Every structure is written in structure tokens, then in C-alpha cells.
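Suppose you are handed a protein chain with no further information: no name, no annotation, nothing but its sequence. What can you learn? This example shows the usual starting point.
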Amino acid sequence: MRRGAAAAVAALSAAALLSACGYGSKADDKADDKANTAATAAGTGSASGAKLSADSVKIGYFANLTHGTPLVGLQEGIFQKELGATQIKTQVFNAGPAEIEALNAGSIDIGWIGPSPAINGYTKSDGKSLRIIGGSASGGVKLVVNPDKVASLDDLKGKKIATPQLGNTQDVALLNYLAGKGFKVDAASGAGDVSVVRTDNKVTPDAYRQGSIDGAWVPEPTASKLVTLGAKVLLDEKDVWPDKKFVITNIIVSQKFLKEHPDVVEAVLRGSVNANAFIKANPDKAKADANEAIKKDAGNALEPAVLDPAWAGIEFLDDPLAGTLQSEADHAVTAGLLKKPNLNGIYDLTLLNKVLAAKSLPAVADAGLGTK
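A reasonable first move is to predict its three-dimensional structure. Written in C-alpha cells, the prediction is:
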């Protein structure tokens, strides 16, 4: 029976871990269909200057604050400036599985995506589909609770805490945290000393309002949305990580595209580094850009009470924080949600470090998981 249960968990988690860790990222047929058939696929501005080795580059991302680098960089024309006459085509996704499928099918060349789908995309292809070529964002995940029911971390026993999906990045983080505090929870069902309730981020606020959950371990802007409903922040996930940093968004590329068009990939990475620099130098303008892009791509902008604290909780950076990717994978293995993955070769930071060196910025490390 135990072996059967373990097999069931593995089967469930293989699909669940493919989901991206951002807002509205739960994988389902409708989300995948929407991402693949109704996502935008138009150029992001007029291209001028010299054309690189490809006529165009197809870029995927989420209409999500943790994907602020592409949101701002595209909105400001930063990427197009670096690409010259090579045209940008964009595709907006709702779910990690759809973005990985699009990368594998050649529908996109480069994408911004969470750590869990990057890990799964790499391992399921036996290391042949993608490389992580840069970082984008850290943080932006919080444990928020009903203050009338939970006054401290010791009060979590017997409570219902939501995560976005079985086996996704936040689900693994909560399970790992609870285990470290001595709480026992069955990873597959979520039952135990603390009830882990898998709830789509889009409906988590309603679940909280109706009292069916007592809190949630969720990314922004869901966490800040819950705060506007009366919840309080009990724990910021960055506080449990060394140096208060952990990967929430990476940049991936098709290995085929990387091999055939390294100049284009390098240009996109220059755009990413420049976009992150713009965000740091112009935080208010960047925040407005991101919100405008979200309104354009997702249909609704975020209200200031949600946007302001959510944006403040995310750090945009070029370092992929490779050591934390390995830790996140290890946590999933410990929770019984993932077989130990072989991540050797998942990173190729050669072009990123070339870009950083040209700007007299320090190189970033691959934690021993780079290409040989």
C-alpha cells in the first residue's frame, strides 16, 4: 500500500511540479489552451538597427509581477533596443506546463519561468530541452493568516493553510517549513497537524473571505490581496533563506536556439540586465510599467493597495541564485513529491557573465550545475 501511495504521489507531483510559481499559475486544460491558442504573439515595437542572426526572437512570460523584468523591459523598449532589427514576438502564458511545451515545440525561444517547471522541463527531457541562462527575481512569497485565528507560528496546528497547487514551489516550501517545525503532514493529501489546502491563487482570496482557509503561503500579489481583506503577514519566506534570497523567476532558452543564435540570446540578456537596472533606478516608473503591462496582457490592473506592497516585496536581480534552485529541488525530494533530479548542466551562464563583465559587474555562479 505504501508503495502504491508513493507511486500515486509521484504521478501527481510530476504534473504538479510543472506549474509555474507565479500568480494564477495553476495548470489546467483551459489555462494551457488559453496560453497556447489565445496568447499574444505580436511584435512589441518597431525594430531598427542591425539585424542579428535571427529575423525574430519569440519570448514567453507571465502577466505577473514576479515577471517584472520582461514586463518592464518590453514596455520601455529596452529589449528591442538591444536586438536592433531582429523582431520581438511575445507570448503570454498562464501556466508553466504550457510554456515548457511551447519551448519544446519551438513556439517560443526564450522564456521567463519559475524554478519548478524549469527543473521538470530539464529532467523530463533528460537534459536536452532547455538551459537556465539567467536570473530575474527573488522573493515575493509570504505566509499570511487570519489574525483572529493565528497569532503566532505556534498557532498553526489544526489550521487550514492554502498553497497554489500540489507540488508547486510554494507548496514544497510550506511542507518543508512545517516539517522543520515538527509538524507532520501527508504530502499527497495535505492532511496532518496542519491542513495544507491546494487552492488556485485566483480563488484564494474568496476562500479566505468565506473562512474556508485560515491563511495561505502564496506569492505576490495574492499575499497583498489577502492583507487588504484583513489578513496579516506572519512570515516572509525570504527570512528562512540564507542572505534572504531565493529564486522565484529564471530565464530559460531552448538549447537549439542557444546553439544557433547565441548573439540573439546575448542581446536578450543585455536587455534583461538593463531592464533590472532600470527597475532599480526608477522603481515608481517601473512599477507603473509593470501594472500597465499586466492590464494589457491580463485585462485588469492591480489596485495600489495590492500593487505597492507586492512590488516592494520582490527583488529583481541578474543572479539566478543557483544554490537555492538545488535546495528547492532537495526540499521536494524530502517531502516525497519528487524523485531526486539530476540537474547537472541545467545552467549555462557564459553569455550572462559576458554581459556582466562588459558592464564591470561581478560574475554569477552556477553552484556546480553548469555545462561542462
